[in-house]
Write a sequence for this structure.
């Protein structure tokens, strides 16, 4: 191990009564790729924000290269050699890659000198980037490479990456790992935050595991199993999905026939000739890298958006292409959109009131005045049945953690006893325990005879849940094939290159 | 080293805080107002007496307060529907005028006739006038995506000119010595006092009824929920299947209808004829009222009364203290500013930061 780059000791940060970090110790050495693991809400983000100068700890000290420092701002952190690549990119969509790299570099502009430097750096680290293209034309992987290059331009001694692979294809992730290996080989310390235990085991030589704001273990992830790591994170036995018992499939509940949709706005994706059938009793997953038309597909199935230029959406045998979301609900469909707050729920509304959003048109909630007794009872039943942890009896949606709110949203729809369930990103940003709970709930729903369509960027999730998988690429959907007949490599190919005509004919 | 002032969000706002904030804002605004009066060389104590005590203790002035609060209450309740839905109807003044024109038009057309049907017909016409006028910005927004803020505001001036034209042209009273005004309404077309010798008419009761209905709509009805959802989270409203354009149209119709009703009540119960300037800017004042009342029906009712006290107080202050009416305008602006500041400080707390980097 190289010299010590960072030593955090006794870092404590409280938000009100909640201790997000409770006497956290962590050391990072030069040349080390160090994983920071934990469920959502375990305190990883808080710790990273403290290290990057975005938050100040209530107590504890930060030492960089042995010197005690205070980091009042990200500028101060960068001056100390700390770089960060965020999970959500902070790029200007209409600027080119090079311009985006120039922006945070004080006094630099996107000129030939900078281009030469950036190109040299990109070559050195194996980061392929088209520097002159505006960001909105680039894929998530390319955007991330811009962020990484931007951080590398400041010659960081420490690089923090927050869930960097969540938006990448398997190949892109491999390329990222190679870059990180090079960087660590040259003496930088890397802090790697991830939910994906297998890649942590491949890449990292040490792991610090947080649970409830405290460090519960520091271990070498190469010698412990993924199951053990998961158990440390969750604090319970490993979470496995219980496969559904064999059951017969019923009539097709959802059919998309040659569906094409015009793109919305300059950054929108057009959908081209989409065909898909989901039968009662089965789970079909749509995999793919984010931004390939999944949001557009969800919107056109739910009726929340999308200008259909040709083709049909059929629910329970009926053509609903021109009908609104409530007409589709009336046919037995239920929808869980991608955004929990602000789309699936009113952030400031109590859970009981949020029942109204998806129930008002199809369940009787009172003729003239809303039946608040009924909405209250529904909310209570969802909270109980789906293990939603709430700070009070009927809290506002915004007061729930991501995982609990997602359990509420999924539960609210299941309480309607749908015959067709469409879920966009069922466990995005949800901790492992809640994710397993949600997935199991959806599997059980299918076992009881509902048709379930899951749109997910998380390939592990798609493969764990689905009977059949189709892959979205560039607005086109591949044929849905049984999971057992597909390898990860094949799916990876479909995700990056789509379905070639030759393959389709075979 | 530099000093920074930062707004830090509060996690929770206690109920006491929420109730006390408008009261405190009123007190601060009064203190500032007192200071201005003092700087103008008048006695602040006397000014408070005229502005606040007299309207509330003198029975005649109290009736005037309730009369003045009636249109404010009706219009601001309507505006709450728009503002809650995040639609910006700035043209209530125009809808108010159109309500008066339509209602007054019925009175002029039925001049000389009598019957209990005239007043209800005038009311219907007033409501219809306000609705039609408010539908213009709503339809323009829905059809062409034109900002309703601009169109509704500009239509106010059109309404003023229309009123001017009518009372100088076709509707001018032939026996009115060429003054720009219509014939005086007959008794059948005027809201009658509720009790002998008083001035208070049924319009005030109607306004209270509207407040009650609005409370119920926002607390318990699906429509009230849809309005709230559409304003707070348009994507959630879309997920619920609430039609965005329909909501735009309906909140504008409600808002315009209530402003129109207020306009009819004003010409029928207060003015007794059509003449330019009967609006007195009440449609604009109602915007302040709606925000003072924190966009809640009960709040709007209370703040209508507070603003009405100030307006009546201002009238007598002009006479007895020779204080300009603009002072009242200034004071209402001050009050709104204080309420908004209080609101912000409820949501955020001020933090002084010393930067060392």
């Amino acid at each position: 191990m190289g010299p010590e780059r960072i030593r955090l000791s006794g870092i404590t940060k409280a938000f009100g009564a909640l201790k997000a970090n409770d006497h956290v110790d962590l050391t990072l050495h030069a040349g080390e790729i160090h994983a920071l693991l934990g469920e959502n809400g375990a305190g990883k983000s808080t710790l990273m924000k403290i290290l990057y100068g975005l938050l100040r700890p209530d107590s504890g000290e930060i030492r960089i290269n042995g010197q005690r420092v205070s980091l009042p701002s990200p500028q101060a952190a960068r001056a100390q050699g700390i770089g960060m690549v965020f999970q959500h990119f902070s790029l200007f969509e209409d600027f080119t890659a090079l311009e985006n790299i120039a922006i945070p570099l004080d006094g630099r502009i996107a000129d030939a000198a900078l281009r030469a430097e950036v190109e040299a750096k990109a070559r050195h680290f194996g980061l392929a980037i088209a520097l002159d293209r505006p960001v909105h034309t680039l894929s998530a992987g390319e955007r991330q490479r811009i962020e990484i290059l931007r951080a590398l331009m400041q010659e960081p001694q420490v690089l923090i990456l927050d869930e960097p692979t969540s938006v990448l294809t398997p190949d892109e992730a491999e390329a990222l790992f190679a870059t990180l290996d090079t960087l660590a080989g040259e003496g930088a310390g890397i802090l790697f935050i991830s939910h994906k235990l297998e890649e942590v085991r491949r890449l990292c030589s040490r792991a610090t595991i947080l649970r409830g704001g405290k460090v519960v273990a520091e271990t070498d992830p190469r010698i412990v199993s993924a199951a053990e790591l998961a158990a440390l994170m969750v604090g319970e036995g490993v979470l496995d999905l219980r496969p559904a018992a064999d059951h017969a499939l019923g009539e097709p509940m959802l059919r998309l026939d040659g569906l094409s949709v015009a793109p919305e706005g300059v950054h929108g994706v057009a959908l081209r000739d989409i065909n898909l059938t989901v039968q009662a009793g089965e789970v079909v997953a749509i995999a793919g890298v984010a931004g390939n038309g999944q949001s557009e597909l969800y919107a056109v199935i739910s009726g929340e958006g999308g200008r259909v230029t040709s083709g049909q959406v059929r629910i329970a045998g009926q053509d609903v292409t021109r009908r609104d979301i409530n007409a589709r609900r009336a046919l037995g469909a239920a929808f869980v959109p991608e955004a929990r707050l602000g789309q699936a729920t009113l952030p400031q509304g109590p859970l009981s009131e949020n029942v109204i959003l998806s129930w008002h048109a199809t369940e009787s909630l009172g003729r003239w005045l809303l039946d608040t007794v009924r909405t209250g009872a529904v909310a209570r039943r969802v909270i109980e049945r789906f293990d939603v942890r709430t700070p009070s009896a009927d809290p506002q949606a915004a007061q729930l953690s991501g995982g609990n709110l997602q359990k509420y949203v999924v539960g609210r729809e299941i309480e309607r006893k749908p015959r067709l369930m469409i879920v966009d990103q069922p466990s995005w940003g949800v901790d492992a325990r809640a994710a397993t709970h949600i997935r199991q709930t959806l599997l059980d729903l299918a076992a009881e005879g509902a048709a379930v369509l899951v749109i997910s960027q998380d390939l592990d999730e798609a493969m764990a849940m689905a009977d059949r998988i189709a892959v979205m690429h560039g607005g086109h959907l591949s044929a849905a094939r049984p999971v057992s007949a597909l390898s990860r490599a094949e799916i990876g190919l479909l995700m990056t290159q789509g379905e070639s005509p030759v393959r389709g004919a075979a | 080293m530099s000093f920074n002032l930062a707004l830090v969000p509060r996690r929770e706002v206690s109920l006491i805080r929420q109730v006390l904030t408008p009261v405190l804002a009123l007190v601060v605004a009064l203190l500032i107002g007192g200071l201005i009066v003092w700087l103008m060389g008048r006695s602040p104590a006397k000014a408070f007496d005229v502005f606040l005590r007299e309207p509330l203790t003198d029975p005649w002035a109290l009736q005037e307060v309730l009369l003045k609060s009636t249109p404010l209450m009706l219009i601001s309740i309507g505006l709450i529907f728009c503002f809650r839905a995040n639609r910006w109807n700035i043209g209530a003044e125009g809808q108010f005028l159109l309500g008066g024109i339509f209602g007054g038009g019925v009175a002029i057309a039925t001049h000389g006739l009598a019957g209990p049907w005239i007043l209800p017909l005038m009311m219907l016409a007033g409501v219809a006038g306000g609705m039609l006028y408010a539908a213009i910005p709503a339809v323009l927004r829905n059809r062409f995506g034109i900002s309703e803020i601009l169109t509704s505001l500009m239509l106010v001036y059109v309404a003023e000119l229309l009123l001017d034209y009518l009372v100088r042209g076709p509707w001018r009273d032939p026996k009115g010595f060429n003054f720009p005004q219509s014939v005086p309404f007959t008794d059948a077309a005027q809201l009658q006092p509720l009790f002998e010798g008083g001035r208070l008419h049924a319009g005030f009761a109607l306004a209270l009824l509207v407040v009650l209905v609005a409370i119920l709509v926002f607390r318990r009805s699906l429509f009230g929920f849809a309005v709230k959802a559409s304003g707070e989270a348009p994507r959630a409203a879309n997920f619920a299947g609430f039609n965005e354009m329909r909501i735009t149209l309906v909140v504008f119709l409600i808002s315009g209808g209530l402003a129109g009703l207020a306009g009819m009540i004003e010409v029928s119960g207060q003015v007794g004829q059509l003449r330019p300037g009967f609006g007195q800017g009440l449609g604009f004042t109602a915007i302040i009222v709606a925000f003072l009342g924190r966009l809640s029906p009960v709040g709007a009712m209370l703040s209508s009364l507070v603003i009405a006290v100030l307006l009546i107080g201002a009238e007598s202050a002009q006479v007895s203290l020779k204080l300009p009416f603009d002072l009242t305008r200034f004071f209402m602006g001050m009050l709104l500013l204080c309420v908004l500041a209080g609101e912000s400080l409820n949501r955020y707390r001020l933090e002084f930061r010393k930067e060392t980097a």
